[in-house]
Each structure stands twice: as structure tokens, then as C-alpha cells.
Amino acid sequence: GAVVSQHPSRVICKSGTSVKIECRSLDFQATTMFWYRQFPKKSLMLMATSNEGSKATYEQGVEKDKFLINHASLTLSTLTVTSAHPEDSSFYICSATPMWSSGNTIYFGEGSWLTVV
Amino acid sequence: AQKITQTQPGMFVQEKEAVTLDCTYDTSDPSYGLFWYKQPSSGEMIFLIYQGSYDQQNATEGRYSLNFQKARKSANLVISASQLGDSAMYFCAMREGRGNTGFQKLVFGTGTRLLVSP
User: Which one, of B117, B30, B37, lies nearest residue B77 by Cα?
Assistant: First the structure.
């Protein structure tokens, strides 16, 4: 079964509203989680690194005020898309690695499909 | 410069045959890891196989094997005895660094769509 869970799997929101996506590691702790975005028929692009207890690190070109990331605990990171617009519609997926791992164990969530209307 | 290159946008294979999906990479870091993921239409990323830069032997996981040629910087995925359920997108990805905390981010290739026919 899944060891990293994302919720919601699908969400439709109105333009101008905010939407929160959760990423949970189910049976391990992770000090770092990663958020990716994938446009239709495209590859995954890293958006930001979510750090437990500190600020997220954003990749170049990603608006930190638009994509708010909070890593409140060792098992939960949230991505909030603020003031969403139709161009934010995309597939968002997170990844996490157990603290005990040497780095060759990277689990992905099931992903979240966001549609902004 | 492209760090991960997958030159095959699409591949066709008949059921029960083997298929090779190409992946080349570019890095100056002596320590790195290479991953292959399968993404069905549902969107989830399914881990298939991992190869570390210092691993002496090619990785194998059931029907999946990784043809790792370090000097050529290639890490091709070989799927033996293809099944209809193998039809999906396949992504090659690289992690640079030793994989300790904070260095687990991946750079992905553009993917190869595999279609397995009966």
C-alpha cells in the first residue's frame, strides 16, 4: 500500500480562491519532502523543498507567495495554492524519503489533480 | 544543459517481448543515483529500480533491469517479457549527491510512453 498519501486526489476550485494539498508519510518520518508539478504530457518539475521546522526552499521561477508550503511535522507537508488561476491547473505530486534511508528510497504520493475554473 | 535525456517519446512492443528504454544523464558529481519510475494514467509514480553511481553491478528487480554504462553516462531500463499492464509513461530520474537529507530531490527526463500490444 501507499506509504506517502496525498489529499485530495482531485480538487476543483474557483478562480481567486485558495486550495490546500496535504502530503503525509504514513509509516515513517521525513525531515524533507519535495513538491513537484506536472503539466499534461510533460515531465515532473521540482517546485520546492519542504523542510520540517523551517522555511521551504523554492526553485527558480516558482512564486513562494503563491505556493505556500508548510512542513509542520515530520509526517506532514502542505502546499497551498493561493489566489488560484486557471493556469495553476496541473498535477501536483509530493515525495518523501525516510530519515533512515540512504537516499535511494524515494516515495511519491498518489498526486493531486487541481482544476481551477 | 539537460541533465536527463530520454530520446524516445514513444515505444511499441509486443506482449512477451523485451524492450529497452533509453536514458542518458549528465552530472559532474561523482556521487549520484539513478531511478526509473512508471506512471500510469492515474498519475501515481511507481518506483521500479535504482542504481547508485558506486554500485558495481547492474540493478535488477524482477522483470526490470538497468543497463548501467557509467563511462557512457547511460542508464537504460530493460523490461523483459512485456505485459499489457506495462503500458504507461516511464521516467528516468537522477539524484545528485549522496542522498542525505536535503539531497533527495530528483531531476526527471521527459519520459517515454510505452505501449504493449497483444
Answer: B37
- Which chain A residue's Cα is nearest to B113? A41
What length does chain A have? 117
Angle at the Cα of A91 from the Cα atoms of A90 and A97, rounded to 5 degrees: 140
Task: From A11, A31, A28, select the one nearest A19 (Cα to Cα).
Answer: A11
Average pLDDT, chain B: 92
Interface contact B33, partner A, CB < 8 A: yes
Distance from CA of B18 to the nearest CA of A (A): 25
Cα(B55)–Cα(B100) distance, integer angstroms: 17
Q: Give per-residue pLDDT as tens, B54-91.
A: 999 999 999 999 999 999 999 999 999 999 999 999 99
